[in-house]
Amino acid sequence: MNATVTSITRRSLLCTLTVASLLTALSARAAEAKRDDTFLEAKDAGADFQVQGEYVGEKLGVQVIALGNERFRAVFHQGGLPGAGWDGQAKIEIDGATADRKTTFATADGKGYSAEITDGTTLTGKTDAGASFTLKKILRESPTAGAKPPVGAVVLFDGSNADAWAGGHTDKRNLLASGSKTKQLFGDFTLHVEFLLPFRPFARGQGRGNSGVYMQDRYEVQVLDSFGLKGLNNECGGIYTKAAPRVNMCFPPLSWQTYDIDFTAARFDDAGKKTKNAIATVKHNGVLIHEQYEIPGPTGGGAPEKPTPGAIQLQGHGNPVFYRNVWIVEKK
User: Fold this and answer.
1) Average pLDDT of the segment spanning 140-145
2) Cβ count within 10 A of residue 218
3) What is the pLDDT of residue 19?
4) Which of 48, 152, 274, 329 is most buried, judged by most C-beta within 10 A?
5) What's the predicted TM-score (pTM) here?
């Protein structure tokens, strides 16, 4: 066999191996994209769940997002965590991965912030200036979690039954599943809702624990696992596609979270013409995210505006999102 033939054979073999490697990689990515690992309780959620979460130290907070297959993203907040010291300025995001029981975060060029987590409770690292830091993992709780309904409130769900809900059903934990709306209709009100998002590390965007709280079945406050994300108007706390929250207060998945909503319905004249927009003030986990926001019209999937009361809907979106301690006070 001459040198030319040998060279062609080698190039052909190399090409075949390259294509095979590429196909294998694409196949692996496709298989990963189809993964639907969904966890409803922390005890079952695995090692990645133990790493993800919130870490805080002196004038610095970090949110670690699990992305599946021992991959993560760390989001650095100067001053502290969102709603607890963050200065609201630009965030620093660094990807990382776990190997040999250590999760490491570093930029591709080795410059900038770096960090590592070795025990699931402590994050250590250095800033871009070389200053060392040590952060401890915390589990935040909403200050209004477990809030008792005041005198005169209508208790919509307390764990005993789902009778107040059309199509409502509970699971073995006596939690209300998403995908139902109240039988009773409401005008102006204050509403307290507590919700639990699943841990779905391979899911992305709107597939990551999607639900929503609809006021009057017309205006949605989005419910979504947006932990560590930008806080857009279609993410958790957003008045869906209308207004982004002032700050992304989404806790990590499998943490109980709260919405406290003060709602004033749209007003109409005798001819049925709208004269005032509906108004909503919303607190997410006790932090103000919308103040007296005028909602210009129904959000996506919402019922048409009318001078009539409407239901509270806990949107079902194919995701196992659950609710507890739901009550409402009508404003007379």
Assistant:
1) 98
2) 22
3) 46
4) 48
5) 0.89
Instruction: State the Cα–Cα distance between residues 262 and 191, nearest whole angstrom.
Output: 7
- Contacting residues for 24 by C-beta, under 8 A, at least 6 apart: none
Please tell me whether residue 306 adopts helix, strand or coil conformation: coil
| Element of type H or E holding 243 | none
Relative to beta strand 322-330, strand 132-138 is unpaired
318 sits in the region (left: phi over 0; alpha: psi -120 to 50; else beta) called left
d(CA 236, CA 161): 27
DSSP state of 43: G
Distance CA 181, CA 184 (A): 9
Residue 162 is predicted with a pLDDT of 98
Work out whether the CA dihedral 288, 182, 317, 323 comes out positive or negative. positive
- Exposure string for 139-172, b = 16+ CB within 10 A, e = fewer: ebebebbeeebeeebbebbeeeebebbeebebee
Q: What distance in Å separates the CA atoms of residue 190 and residue 280, rounded to the nearest whole number?
A: 10
The string of pLDDT tens digits covering residues 11-61 is: 655 555 454 444 444 444 444 445 889 999 999 999 999 999 999 999 999
CA angle 259, 262, 264 (to 5 degrees): 140
Domains of the chain in sequence order: 42-138 (2.40.128), 154-330 (2.60.120.560)
Q: Which residues contact 67 (CB under 8 A, 6 or more apart)?
A: 73, 201, 202
Q: How much helix, strand and coil, in percent to the nearest 5, is found in the chain?
A: 15, 40, 50
Closest by CA to 81, choosing from 102, 64, 105, 106, is: 64
How many DSSP H helices and E strands does the chain contain?
Answer: 2, 22
Query: Using CA atoms, how far apart are residues 257 and 209, in angstroms rounded to an integer?
Result: 13
Query: 221 and 261 in contact (C-beta within 8 Å)?
Result: yes
35 sits in which H/E element: none
- Asked if 74 and 62 count as a contact pair (C-beta separation under 8 A), the reply is yes
